[in-house]
Each structure stands twice: as structure tokens, then as C-alpha cells.
Amino acid sequence: MGKFKFILAVFVLFAVVVACNxxxxxxxxxxxxxxxxxxxxxxxxxxxxxxxxxxxxMKIVYGNPYLLGNSPYVLxxxxxxxxxxxxxxxxxxxxxxxxxxxxxxxxxxxRLNYGNMYNVLFYNSSDSTCYSLLDRKAFINKFYIPSxxxxxxTQGNFIIFTLSEQDYNNDNDIxxxxxxxxYKCSLYGKDVRQISPDRIQLIDWKTDDANDRIYMYITEDxxxxxxxxxxxxxxxxxxxxxNSGVGKEIISxxxxxxxxxxxxx
Length: 265
Description:
It is built from 3 helices and 15 strands. It is α+β, with helices and mostly antiparallel strands. It has a domain at 58-199. A 6-stranded antiparallel β-sheet has the order 4-5-8-9-10-11, with no helix packed on it. A hairpin with a 5-residue loop joins strand 2 and strand 3 (73-82).
């Protein structure tokens, strides 16, 4: 009787081992099949993404016009949008909510909020002429225009804008992260002049009409890491309103050194 129980136990153990091996082999087969499915899905997904990338096309969109008060001029932004982007929904929102077009920057200037703007057209309704601000490819980061001034020719009536033209940080995109250069032009997009060094970031700017000056508070990539942040130096530069050129720094090296000696030693 004891011998029979022993044989029975061995048989049961053998059956359990065989069953476990079968389950394990089946699990391996299922895992292999799942891995194969995942691999095929990944490959299909990659192909779909490539096909989608090939299908994405860009188009030129002329944005909501901005009326230049007390003048015959209308400003029209030139934008780029993908064919699958709901750009017209955005334009509709801008039409019914004009405050989305600009924000009040100072007592005298508004900042236009057109987003991805690459050029600006100036249309003269009195003679039906139209021309562009830029004659080259560039990304317009900032665009400041007088808010409530008339269409006279006083020195305070001008436009300030910034451009990015090179992929400085090598991220395959040209935008504000690549730095910008500040320009000034007349109220009607003429007499474009560079008023800052290349590849800086404009933090703030102010005008002093009485003394014919523009002051710009800027950041430069002083440590060369292709970023513009708190690790970089800031400076104040100034140029003339009536005869604008690239602004010069107003704080001399000797003053900077004296400030360092006074506060950092």
C-alpha cells in the first residue's frame, strides 16, 4: 500500500511538472506574439507619422486687419499655418474679440498679438496701394505700434519691432528663443533701421521724446550657451529717435567695475 502511494505521488508530481512546462511554453508563445504585434503596430505607427508629416502643408494666411487710427492705412499680418490648423476659427475669435489683437504696452503703445507673424502689409485706402514691411524671410517676435496718436509726422510716431532670422539654438525652428534684433520704422512701414545689436532679447523699451532718445533694456547671450536667461548679462542701450542707429550701452565699463568693487567684494 505504501509503495502504491509513493508511485501515485510520483505520477502526480510528474503530471504537474509537465503541465507547468506547457503553461510556460504557452506564455512564451503569447509573449512572443504580443511583442510581434507591438513591433508591427510601432512600425505602422511610424509609417503613419511619416505619411502624416509628408501630408502636412503650409499656407499663407492674411490675418485680421489692424486699423491705424486717424490715417488711411491698414496693417495686415502675414502668417503661416498648416493646412490642418483651425486658423479660421482663430481669425473668427479675433474678429469678435478685437482685444485679442493687441495688449496695452504703455501709455502710448500697443503690442500686437498676431502670433506666428512673418511679415506685415501696409494698405493705403486713399490710393489703394499696398506694400510689405519686409523683403526677406524672418519671424516677427514683437510688434509695437502707437495706440492713440494721430497720423502726423512728429518724431514720436514710429513702430518698433523685433526679428529672428537664424536658428541660433539649433532646434530646427526659428522663433524668439533664437534671440532677436530690434528695428524701428516710420508709422507707415518705411525707413526701416536696426537699433540694437544682433541676437539679443528685448526686455523693455521706453522713449524720451523731449530729449530725442529711445532706451532699450536687453539681454545678450553673454555665456554663449545659446540660451537667454538669468545667467546672462543685461544692459541698457540708447539711440536717437530722429536719426536712429544701433544703440550704444549707456553704462561704462568703469562704472560697472566700481559697482562690482562696491557690492561684490
